[in-house]
Automatic annotation (TrEMBL):
Belongs to the NADH dehydrogenase family. Pfam families: Pyr_redox_2 (PF07992). Its cofactor is FAD. It comes from the Eukaryota. GO terms for molecular function: NAD(P)H dehydrogenase (quinone) activity. SUPFAM superfamilies: FAD/NAD(P)-binding domain. Gene3D superfamilies: 3.50.50.100. This is Pyridine nucleotide-disulfide oxidoreductase family protein. Keywords: FAD, Flavoprotein, Oxidoreductase. GO terms for biological process: aerobic electron transport chain. It comes from Apiospora kogelbergensis.
Length: 425
């Protein structure tokens, strides 16, 4: 009787989960184990493509995706096109709907929830959903790019020439640093009259960045001509501009919302504790404590990244909603789902690589090694740009679809990425 591992989602964590599960199943088969002969690995997602979300702030957003059909065919992963609507942990069945509206149901023996996250649009901000842009998903990033290219056809006004980035977190800062260069390339848009403004409710720029990075980031934004308004929230957005919590009115046709994300709503269908972002609190093997057949990875999982078993929970370090964590979490989750089904020992999730790299547009990038207050700036400016490009253009992309051994090896949970020589690390 065929057993099945279902992976929900084809993002960074989902792809790695599928490859890790297939890797262990194939390894077990090579040892002549009958236990692995009839285990299917299936990925359910709207499209057989990986959207490279960390690059959606860049130019040419439509190209920021990688096809997965060939990779799935090569590795024997079954792809099911559809959006998952329900996960029934009692009957262990998943219901999805495809693009035609047809519903289908699949049973699972183990499930990896890797459905990602979505930008949060607070209802308290009037006009937000109607009048703002975003770079959270492929379609929204493409919509923004099309809008920017059309700006020269609009009568020249302060609102036409002003872009307001709502949120000075990681995505907001990368976008704000990128925009001066992008706006300067748009024919008919006078670069000397354009303004880029970041509105951040915290009292510091990049509140989630390590303290060692903020001074350099602030100085870079100033050099790029990006204005920053700290301690200020967005109160409302309309067709002509943004109103802040201080009562200031900023005329703009381009308000871009980047302030906050939450785990995919499917996490609500899995019993157990969630964090403030809706992520499932998983154990050290990425299993959901109240749904033993379910593992979670990527932006749907809140997992410990340290190995300290003592002390209060607040002293522990936890995964972040980033591909830096999603990739290894996917490897561990997929491996453990397969190992659990095969009766093999599962592995404790370990986050070996910790660091933060921020793209700063024409001014380069900044890289800090380590985590939290212990992080130190290792590279900055032009020296950090090659490392950022390698990460964005090579490291986070799925493996080639013509190399089976390499594709399966990429799912190794103890996979250690080596930075190529010459990138400064």
């Amino acid at each position: 009787m065929t057993k099945r591992i279902i992976v929900v989602g084809a993002g960074f964590a989902g792809v790695m989960s599928a490859l890790a599960a297939k890797r262990l199943i194939n390894m077990t088969l090579e040892q002549n184990s009958e236990r692995a002969e009839d285990i299917e690995v299936a990925v359910i997602a709207p499209e057989a493509q990986l959207v490279v979300r960390p690059r959606l702030y860049e130019e040419d957003a439509a190209s920021m995706c990688a096809p997965l059909d060939g990779l799935f065919q090569l590795t024997g992963v079954r792809f099911v096109q559809g959006s998952v609507e329900t996960i029934d942990v009692e009957t262990q069945r998943v219901t999805s709907v495809d693009q035609t509206g047809r519903r289908s149901s699949l049973s699972y023996d183990r499930l990896v929830l890797a459905a990602g996250s979505d930008v949060v649009l607070p209802t308290a901000v009037a006009g937000l959903s109607e009048h703002s842009f975003a770079v959270d998903q492929l379609h929204s990033a493409v919509r923004l790019e099309e809008h920017l290219k059309k700006l020269p056809s609009v009568p020249a006004t302060p609102g036409r020439n002003t872009v307001v980035v709502c949120g000075g977190g990681f995505t907001g800062l990368e976008l704000a640093a990128e925009l001066p260069g992008r706006l300067a390339k748009i024919a008919g848009l006078e670069s000397d009259s354009t303004r880029v403004i970041v509105v951040e409710r915290a009292d510091v720029i990049g509140p989630d960045l390590s303290a060692c990075m903020r001074p350099f980031v602030g100085q870079t934004l100033e050099r790029l001509g990006v204005e920053v308004k700290l301690g200020t929230a967005v109160a409302g957005i309309d067709a002509g501009g943004v109103t802040t919590s201080t009562g200031e009115r900023i005329e703009t046709l381009t308000p871009i919302w980047t302030a906050g994300v939450a785990a995919a709503p499917l996490t609500r269908q899995i019993p157990g504790d969630k964090d403030a972002s809706g992520r499932l609190r998983v154990d050290t093997h990425l299993r959901c404590p109240l749904a033993k057949a379910v593992f979670a990875a990527g932006d749907t999982a809140c997992a410990r990244t340290d190995e300290n078993d003592e002390g209060a929970g607040s002293q522990h370090q936890y995964s972040r909603m980033s591909c830096q964590h999603a990739l290894p979490m996917g490897r561990y989750a997929g491996h453990n789902a397969a190992a659990d089904l095969l009766g093999l020992p599962t592995l404790r999730y370990s986050q070996v690589m910790l660091g933060t790299i921020l793209d700063l547009g024409l001014d380069g990038a900044i890289f800090a090694a380590g985590d939290g207050d212990e992080a130190v700036v290792a590279l900055a400016g032009a020296e950090a740009k090659p490392l950022k490009r390698w990460i964005n253009e090579t490291l986070i992309y799925p493996p080639r679809a013509d190399d089976l051994a390499g594709a399966l090896a990429s799912g190794d949970p103890v996979n250690r990425t080596t930075v190529p020589a010459g990138l400064g690390c």
